[in-house]
Amino acid sequence: MGVEAKVIVACENEAAATDHAAAAFTRLGELDAMFSDYRRDSELNQLCAAPSGVPHRVSADLFRVVELAQLVSQRSSGAFDISCGPLTSLWRTVRKSGLLASDNELADARARTGWRKIVLDRESQTITLAQPRMQLDLGGIAKGYAAADAVRVLVERGAPSCLVALAGDIAVGDPPPHPPTNLSTNTSAGSPPSEPGWRIAPGPDSGMAHAAGVLLLANASASTSGDSQQFVEIAGQRYAHIVDPQTGLGASRVRAATVVVPHDSRGRALCGATADAIATAFSLVNDTHAASLISAAPIAPAAASIRDLANKITPVLQVGDARLFRLDPPANPPPP
Fold this sequence. Notes:
alpha+beta; seven-stranded antiparallel beta sheet; 22% strand
């Protein structure tokens, strides 16, 4: 899925931890082979290469992710849209060249997008793409799903105290028995014995900078979306790497959003995917729409925080369980 993966497992000995981590990485590899739009042989790209208008049977994992994505698209009025692959591809070219796409290029890409052009049949587990040359992009939902599903694997193997991070998407199991050490500076994680959770302190290169100061998590997923690291300036305008389906350009809002969803009976993976998708949508909608999206989310977030990146301290919107957030900014916040 184009990002670095990190797995932390608390075990009695190194050999057991290595075996458990290997199983988690194997699962992440399986999901990457399904969801990646970078791999020509991925299941996602096979679906997109299939004839339009013809039902295509897919794996249970891919169907679940697309089904959830469609629900978030509906409830976000299209702000979240996995059909915007053609726009994403065009925007990647723009970011490399530093030149905005022409009107004709944008029109062609827009003609091949639209979440309503994705038709699902749960009974047959098929997906139909109604428009020729469509390209789905699961970048705003799949990492949350994968991180949480890797945690499921670890818990089922008898390693419940664990953390899996894919860039700004983090999933955790039970709290660690003691503060882990020797962690990467990108995302520091630990917990004093008196605190019932993993302390997630976003680092300047984690993709979570400027969102929540510190998170305290157990058996939950947290996703952060924004342009604190991946952005480009063209003709004096700052654009995020996240494409706004309404404009076909990178989002121009300078903000970051963090969403926490507890793992429940609907499955860790779907909870992680929900956190990822809602955080992505928050980067694109206005504050009023963001507030309404909280109540309309397929799985209710426990907490959410949206911050204007020009103001690292005061949230634009903060809802839910404040105990999950330590909202003091990092001691050494990165520059805007």
